[in-house]
Structure formats: structure tokens, C-alpha cells
Design a protein that fits this description.
Chain lengths: ~350, ~290
């Protein structure tokens, strides 16, 4: 399992200049093809020589994949739009600040300059064992090294684990779920748009992927409807190093408050499971209630129901409970509730 | 094409991790080829079944119209096992061919049902049924040799009629035992690697090599069962086997079929009256001819 960080394995580089060409190339290559967006995930895999694709399809030359466009019902963000562009875009900052806030907390400025919104939502799991090339479930093997008594699983899942306990590391994903975004996917059968929450899948459905893209499929754009534009947003990310790290947990919510009570709300967390979780039960429970600490407390407890901690990640249960509580009740109202084992 | 998938474990050893999934299609194609070849053979080439004449033919009237073959308990077991087996095969292999769903929980539950039903069957068959009726005996082997010789046009006496189960049925049962038990035993251990209600997870129960071999055996047994189950369903649907299939639903087969295919000595049934005896000197069974 030697880690070689100097020379990538040889591959054929394809640089299409249209979505159609890129999709055809990927379809032709199937399992042998590899989508290169910003390269922030890809180059780790390639330099570590864990993944050895025969053909890398570089999307950087496809102009139609870049930029933020206004649509009759909101905005459309090209999948190759960089995170910095997302953060700095005036319309996003004005109407969909939740996404700007989440994107701004991704990694470092350098990475945000290179990393793309499509890459951020499609990036692979960051489990140590998986990234080291060990033959775990996610790599097609028959064991989870993290879910063992000695396994280093501090960053891993507390919910919906099924053999694999890796988590989705995206910061923008829960924000996009909260904004009711649609992901536009180009396949050999044409184009389709799926709800953001349906873009992500857990190990119970497919243990080797974090999303629904199959070989040959391409995420081309993300559409955000105006439904939640300008509503009350909350995004919080907890990480070990505040300057540059993946989330231990994050929470994103969009809320419309009317006459002192929550009229509409969408809330999602990431870092708790292999896919970002939309907390539908919490949404149903808090609707009609005032957005205060009491409602937040109730929401937090509800959010962590069914959580199963591993050896070293029990802290995630009170963390998630309090993040949800803060998302509903606000930071000023929140008080830290120590974990009492429930 | 390597039939196994290999990986390098954290200690640098090359270990098998499971079968290559193209074997699913190999099993499906093998099952289909067998079915097609068998159907063509029966349609165009097979000669009528011929059996040796009875030394002491039975009196048909003494045989009940409905010959009991499978008890309600045995039938219930069979259909529970069938449901579990189909669930296991579909949950195991559909995700591998692109139909994605939350399969693991259904798989281990079906596996647990199958394991319990097999345990029941072993006890039931050992103590409450004619245990040896499903195992090949000397007459089966002798007749198999005779049938083979006759198939190739060599001189050989005609075979006896069957006991309760034809040799093919017995051999199929043996193959199912081998594949089924391999899948069950390995499957029980594999449950230590997932969260179930039965025991705590222990992924380090065996070495990586042993686990790998276990997954390989489980996979081979699984794809073997694909072909075996395809054949089983095919035979169950064949018109000349309808009486056998019917007996697994209703518990009995027609007297005519029984007398045509089965030897009342090797598979005696209770006669409707105590006298005269089932066999009478010189009598011949209607519809049976000296196969010669």
C-alpha cells in the first residue's frame, strides 16, 4: 500500500469542448473513464495510484459548464463553476446566501479557486482506509476497516451506516438540499434533473458510490429555484482545523417565518452519514412552532434519533443535536447540551 | 478473465475478496443452455421411457386414486425454502446487475429463514420421513448405467421404474445440498460482518485469506444456485413433470402417473383395502408394457 505522490500512472487525456462530446466520451469509456473537474479529489486518487483510469476526461475546456445564469425560476450554476465564483456571485450572495456561506467554508482559498461546485457535491468519501487503497467495501472489498474496535472512526457515520461507515464530505451539498436545488445530469438517454437529496445515495443502495452518477453520466448544472430566495438561512460547519478541513458535521437550513412561527423550512446535515441527510422529520415537527430554543431543543433531539455511534465518534450525536438546535433556534438562543448517552 | 477478484490486504498479502461478477451471467447462460438443449432433446430425439416389466404387477384398483407423496409439513417447508431462496438470489444478484435497492437486510433475513427451515428439514427428514428415499441406492446406480448404455445404443436391460424419487431428482437434491449448505454455512459467518440481531459484529473473526475464501465459496454457491434453480423451475413447468409439481402443491399424484413411473415395491403406498395385496401374480398394470 505504498503511497506514491510523485508520478501519476499513465492515462489518455481527453479534452472535449462540449457537454455532448464529453458525455459521449464518458459513455464510450464506461468504467475506464474518469471525470476531471477541478482535480481537487481526482489528483489525490491519481497521485496515490489508487485509481488508475485509462482515460481522463478533462471538463475544463467546456465553456457551457461554467458560470451562473438566471433562469425564469431562479438560477442555474454550471457544474464547472468554481467555488470562489459561487461565493462571490452577487445574485447568490443576495438571494441564496446559504450556498455562498457553505461554499466559502470549503477548504482553503486556493482550493476554492480551483475546486468546482460540481466536484464538491460529487467528490468521493474521505475515509482514511478507503483513501489509502485498502480493499474495503467501498473499494469493492468485503470489510470495513473503520467499523472495528480499533478502527479510526472519529470522522465517520452515526446514521444510516450499512457495512461502510464513511461519510459524505461536501459542504455545499446540504445547502443545496435546503435550497431545494435540482441537479441536471446528462446521460446517454438525454438530460434529466433530480432533486438534490436524490442525487446522493448511501451504502445500502450502492456501497461503492456516494451519488447516482453511473459511468457515462455527467453532472452538468445545478438549478436553484426562487422558492427559498431571500429566506432565513443558517449554515454552520464544525471542523477540527478552522482554516482548512473537511466537516466533522455541518448543517444548512432555509426557513420562512411568518407571524412568529415557522411557516416553511428545509434543513439538512452532512458528515453524519454517507449521504447528506434532509431532516424531514424535524421539518414536520417544527413547522408551525416559533423558531426558538425550545423548538430547537426538540428538533435537535429528534434529529439524532436512531444514531449509532462507533468507537470514537459518539461526540457527533450531541454535536448534531446542537447544530440542529442552533439552526432552528439561532445561535443566541442555543446552549450546549452535554451528551448523556441518549 | 479471472473468475475471482483479488485485493492486497493491509499487510501486503494478495487475498481473494469475492467471485468475479461475470460468473452471474455464466450461470444464467449455462442454465439457459441446459434448458434449451434438454427441451430440444425431449422434443426431437428422446425415445419413450421404457421400464422393465414387473415381476409381480400390481392391481391398479388397490392403489388409491390420489397417491400421497408430500405431507403438508414437507410442502410447507418446500415453499418456505423456495421463497427464501428466491429472495436470497434476487437480493444478492439484482444489485450486481444494476437494479439497486437496500438489499442487505432482506438478504440476511431470508438467509436466516432459509437456515431455520433447513434445520427443521434435516430433523423432519431424519426422524419423521423416509430418510433414505432421497439418496441414490444401488438400483438407481445400476439403472443409471443401463439407461446410459441404452442411450448410446448399447445392449442393456431396461431399467426398473423409479422409487419415490427418480435418480435425477436425487442427484439434484444432492447438488442443492452441496450448494445450499455452502451458501448457508459461509453466510452465517458472513453475518458477523454486518449488523444483525443475532450476534455482535466481529470482522476479525478470521484472517483476510479465510474471509476471502468464505466470500468466494459463498459466491460460487450462489451462482451455482442460479443455474440449479433455473433448472428446477424448468422441470417443474415441463408438462411430463406436471404430476410431480402438482404433488408439491396438493400433496398427491394421480394413480396413473404413479403406476406408470414408480415401482410400488420400491415406493409402496397404502392400499385402499387390506386384501387382496397390492401385487397379484400374473396381473398386468394397465398402460404398462414390457419395455424390452
Amino acid at each position: 500500500m505504498a503511497v506514491i505522490r510523485d508520478v501519476m500512472p499513465a492515462f489518455e487525456l481527453a479534452q472535449p469542448n462540449s457537454i455532448s462530446d464529453a458525455q459521449k466520451l464518458l459513455e464510450q469509456q464506461g468504467e475506464n473513464g474518469w471525470v476531471l473537474a477541478g482535480g481537487m479529489d481526482s489528483f489525490d486518487w491519481l497521485k496515490d495510484r489508487i485509481k488508475k483510469p485509462k482515460v481522463v476526461v478533462d471538463l475544463s475546456g467546456i465553456a457551457e459548464l461554467r458560470g451562473v445564469r438566471a433562469t425564469p425560476d431562479g438560477i442555474e450554476i454550471g457544474a464547472m463553476t468554481t467555488l470562489t465564483e459561487v461565493v462571490e456571485h452577487p445574485v447568490i450572495r443576495e438571494k441564496y446566501k446559504l450556498l455562498a456561506e457553505s461554499a466559502e467554508l470549503v477548504a482553503s482559498p486556493q482550493i476554492r479557486n480551483q475546486g468546482t461546485i460540481g466536484g464538491n457535491v460529487t467528490q468521493d468519501a474521505r475515509c482514511w482506509y478507503y483513501r489509502a487503497g485498502w480493499p474495503c467495501y467501498r473499494a469493492g472489498g468485503n470489510i470495513c476497516y473503520a467499523d472495528t474496535p480499533e478502527g479510526r472512526n472519529r470522522e465517520h457515520a452515526i446514521l444510516h451506516a450499512d457495512r461502510c461507515v464513511a461519510v459524505n464530505p461536501s459542504d455545499s451539498a446540504p445547502a443545496l438540499i435546503a435550497l431545494d436545488a435540482k441537479f441536471v445530469i446528462r446521460t446517454s438517454k438525454g438530460e434529466r434533473a433530480v432533486d438534490a437529496e436524490d442525487y446522493f445515495i448511501g451504502p445500502d443502495i450502492d456501497i461503492t458510490r456516494l451519488h447516482i452518477l453511473r459511468p457515462g453520466d455527467l453532472l452538468t448544472a445545478i438549478r436553484i429555484p426562487a422558492t427559498w430566495a431571500g429566506s432565513q438561512f443558517y449554515f454552520e460547519k464544525v471542523r477540527d482545523r478552522n482554516v482548512w478541513d473537511f466537516p466533522l458535521l455541518n448543517v444548512a437550513s432555509a426557513m420562512v417565518v411568518s407571524s412568529g412561527s415557522i411557516e416553511r423550512i428545509r434543513i439538512a446535515v452532512n458528515g453524519a452519514a454517507a449521504r447528506p441527510l434532509r431532516l424531514r422529520g424535524v421539518e414536520d415537527a417544527v413547522r408551525g412552532n416559533p423558531p426558538n430554543a425550545t423548538t430547537g431543543e426538540m428538533a435537535g433531539k429528534l434529529a439524532v434519533q436512531g444514531a449509532v455511534p462507533l468507537q470514537f465518534n459518539a461526540y457527533k450525536i450531541p454535536l448534531m443535536r446542537n447544530l440542529v438546535k442552533r439552526a432552528i433556534g439561532g445561535v443566541e438562543e442555543a446552549t450546549w447540551t452535554p451528551y448523556n448517552g441518549q | 478473465m479471472d473468475p475471482l477478484q483479488w485485493a492486497i490486504d493491509p499487510w501486503g498479502k494478495t487475498v481473494p475478496i469475492h467471485i468475479a461478477w461475470f460468473l452471474i451471467w455464466v450461470a444464467v447462460i449455462a442454465g439457459l443452455l441446459f434448458i434449451i438443449a434438454h427441451a430440444i432433446y425431449l422434443r426431437y430425439f428422446a425415445k419413450p421411457k421404457q421400464f422393465a416389466a414387473d415381476a409381480a404387477p400390481v392391481v391398479p384398483a388397490q392403489i388409491p386414486e390420489h397417491v400421497p407423496r408430500h405431507s403438508l409439513t414437507a410442502r410447507t417447508f418446500h415453499w418456505i425454502m423456495a421463497a427464501a431462496m428466491f429472495t436470497l438470489l434476487f437480493t444478492a444478484f439484482l444489485p450486481k446487475v444494476g437494479v439497486q435497492f437496500d438489499w442487505v437486510t432482506y438478504h440476511w433475513i431470508a438467509g436466516a429463514v432459509l437456515t431455520l427451515s433447513i434445520m427443521f428439514h434435516v430433523i423432519h427428514a431424519s426422524f419423521f420421513m423416509d430418510f433414505w428415499s432421497i439418496w441414490p441406492d444401488r438400483i438407481d446406480l445400476r439403472d443409471a448405467k443401463r439407461r446410459t448404455l441404452r442411450f448410446f445404443g448399447k445392449p442393456a436391460p431396461p431399467p426398473e421404474r423409479f422409487a419415490k424419487y427418480p435418480l435425477e431428482n436425487k442427484l439434484y437434491h444432492s447438488a442443492i445440498i452441496a450448494a445450499g449448505l455452502s451458501a448457508i454455512v459461509t453466510g452465517v459467518f458472513m453475518m458477523f460482518r454486518v449488523r444483525t440481531i443475532f450476534f455482535p459484529r466481529n470482522p476479525y473473526l478470521f484472517s483476510d485469506m479465510t474471509w476471502g475464501m468464505m466470500y468466494v465459496l459463498h459466491g460460487l454457491a450462489g451462482v451455482g444456485l442460479i443455474a440449479l434453480i433455473m433448472m428446477h423451475v424448468y422441470f417443474g413447468l415441463r408438462p411430463e413433470k406436471r404430476e410431480i409439481t402438482k404433488s408439491m402443491i396438493f400433496g398427491w399424484m394421480d394413480r396413473g402417473f404413479y403406476l406408470k413411473e414408480h415401482d410400488p415395491v420400491r415406493w409402496p403406498v397404502e392400499v385402499e383395502t387390506s386384501a387382496p395385496p397390492a401385487r397379484s401374480q400374473g396381473a398386468r398394470t394397465e398402460g404398462l408394457t414390457d419395455a424390452g
